[in-house]
């Protein structure tokens, strides 16, 4: 459920008309709903009620300062994967003890930054990382809490580009070698092994892979405890999917996910961490764009928008589906039209969807891409010298621009011409 609904025939974000925002900030823009973000965070928090837990928002999904502040103020932890994300989380007021550092390629600088600034734990992904982290911790006179990310070799049944828990993926250490690697970690100075981490993929709409992975983690917990390790915390990753195509979707809910956690690892008495990103932010955001032209092709009609693949790359990159709806609700009984919806960027990859049956649109009319709050703005670029588009946050009847559109001069002046040229 989200808070983007038609009111008297116009699409609103909570109590604000998206058309009014468009009139003030121009198109295209991203718009997020604070109520939806809040609701989704609470759903996860409630799903784990009764178990000691922390919901660490995977901020890669949407790392705008206002979004982080909103979630951080509710008590969310943050899952970060770079020094930049760590800095963003801290700048939004999230304390180090609620920040978890994930990622396969943490650098020495990033380790220093997080150890000096405060960190809840590092999720270690390889032996060389473990050795480097140990030496950095020792050099700073610190003992850092760590989990080791295991690769359970479970098929997440999702798009191959976002599947991360199969043998052959670059993530984690093979679960079959966990006993050996945990022994090595325990022997290294500066590291305090406290738990196990797993994350097998994203946009997962079947709970079974989660169950299989968590079961393997539970078995490993017992084995490692038998070896004398204190396994007190399980980081179970993120990955729960969202209904991108509203008309034919019934994905599992956070409470169903919580039930799987309870059933598979609840008996171990561990503190539970989860790292959801998409489910918190995805349906909390839309991308609003204007139709520039309706162009008749040889055998099809193109809806040419002012948003493009540089603003929302998911369709081009993963063949992802996003619902596209008009800001003015179609009249009952209105005949739909069929379009290839495209942007102005000069490659055919700049296609949001082909042969979509949707409301008939004319030039100047506005549309919203739904489910664009996660992996939308954060993955955008200035390809074709199209400045990054603004982000807007709505709460109730108020809205604010939370990232302004840069001017063309700001974009151009980031480049410098060498004096010798
Ligand atoms: N934890 C780790 C270690 C991750 O790698 C990810 C996502 C998450 C948590 C959050 O997963 P979520 O709950 O959002 O599914 N750009 C892609 C998605 C990439 C996901 C990468 N890792 C997309 O647009 O679909």
Descriptive labels:
21 strands; nine-stranded mixed sheet; eight-stranded parallel β-barrel; 421 residues; 12 helices; alpha/beta
**Please, how many helices?**
12
Shape: globular
Output mean pLDDT.
Answer: 97
Task: Look at the helices and sheets and give the structural class.
Answer: alpha/beta
Return Rg in Å: 23 Å
The biggest sheet amounts to: 9 strands, mixed
Distinct ligand kinds? ligand LLP
Low-pLDDT stretches are none
In percent, how much strand structure appears in the residues? 25-35%
Distance between the termini: 56 Å
Tell how many strands the DSSP assignment holds: 21
Helical fraction equals 25-40%
Can you give a write-up of this model?
The chain has 421 residues and is α/β, with parallel strands linked by helices. 28% of the residues lie in helices and 25% in strands. The chain has twelve helices and 21 strands. It has helices at residues 18-25, 34-47, 65-73, 83-91, 108-117, 127-139, 178-187, 208-226, 254-265, 278-281, 314-318, 408-412, and strands at residues 4-7, 10-13, 16-17, 29-33, 53-58, 77-80, 99-101, 121-124, 144-151, 173-174, 191-197, 233-235, 271-274, 285-296, 301-305, 324-326, 336-342, 351-359, 366-369, 391-395, 398-403. Strands 4, 14, 15, 16, 17, 18, 19, 20 and 21 form a nine-stranded mixed beta sheet that branches. Strands 5-6-7-8-9-11-12-13 form an eight-stranded parallel β-barrel, surrounded by five helices. The chain has a three-stranded antiparallel beta sheet with strand order 1-2-3. Strand 17 and strand 18 (351-359) form a beta hairpin. Helix 2 (34-47) packs parallel to helix 9 (254-265). The longest helix is centred in the middle third of the chain and has 19 residues, at 208-226. It is globular and about 70 Å long. Bound molecules: ligand LLP. Ligand LLP binds at residues 58, 61, 79, 102, 162, 199, 202-203, 237-240, 275-279, 314, 318, 375.
């Amino acid at each position: 459920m989200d808070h983007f609904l038609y009111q008297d025939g116009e699409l609103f974000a909570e109590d604000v008309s998206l058309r009014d925002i468009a009139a003030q900030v121009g198109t295209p823009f991203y718009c997020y709903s604070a109520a939806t973000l809040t609701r989704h965070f609470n759903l996860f928090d409630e799903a784990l009620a009764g178990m000691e837990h922390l919901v660490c928002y995977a901020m890669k999904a949407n790392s705008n300062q206002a979004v982080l502040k909103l979630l951080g103020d509710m008590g969310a932890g943050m899952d970060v994967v770079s020094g930049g994300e760590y800095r963003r989380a801290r700048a939004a007021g999230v304390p180090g003890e609620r920040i978890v550092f994930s990622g396969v390629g943490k650098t020495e600088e990033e380790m220093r930054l997080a150890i000096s600034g405060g960190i809840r734990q590092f999720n270690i992904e390889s032996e060389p990382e473990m050795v480097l982290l140990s030496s950095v911790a020792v050099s700073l006179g610190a003992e850092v809490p760590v989990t080791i990310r295991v690769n359970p070799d479970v098929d997440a049944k999702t798009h191959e580009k976002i599947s991360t828990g199969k043998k052959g993926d670059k993530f984690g250490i093979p679960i079959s070698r966990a006993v050996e690697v945990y022994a090595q970690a325990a022997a290294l100075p500066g590291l305090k092994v406290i738990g196990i981490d797993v994350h097998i993929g994203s946009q997962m709409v079947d709970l079974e892979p989660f169950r299989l992975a968590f079961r393997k983690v539970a078995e490993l917990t017992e084995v490692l405890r038998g070896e004398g390790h204190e396994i007190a915390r399980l980081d179970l990753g993120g990955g729960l999917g969202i209904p991108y195509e509203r008309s034919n979707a019934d994905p599992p809910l956070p409470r169903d996910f919580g039930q799987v956690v309870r059933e598979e690892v609840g008996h171990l008495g561990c503190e539970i961490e989860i790292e959801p990103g998409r489910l918190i932010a995805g349906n909390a955001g839309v991308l609003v764009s204007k139709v520039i032209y309706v162009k008749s092709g040889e055998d099809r009609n193109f809806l040419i928008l002012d948003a493009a693949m540089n603003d929302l790359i998911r369709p081009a990159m993963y063949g992802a589906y996003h619902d596209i709806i008009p800001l003015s609700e179609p009249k009952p009984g209105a005949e739909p039209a069929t379009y290839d919806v495209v942007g102005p960027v000069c490659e055919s990859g700049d296609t949001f969807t082909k042969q979509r049956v949707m409301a008939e649109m004319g030039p100047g009319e506005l549309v919203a891409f739904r489910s664009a709050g996660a992996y939308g703005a954060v993955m955008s670029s200035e390809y074709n010298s199209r400045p990054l588009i603004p982000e807007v946050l709505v709460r109730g009847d108020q809205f604010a621009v939370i990232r302004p559109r840069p001017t063309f001069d700001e974009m151009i002046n980031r480049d410098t011409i060498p004096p010798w040229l």
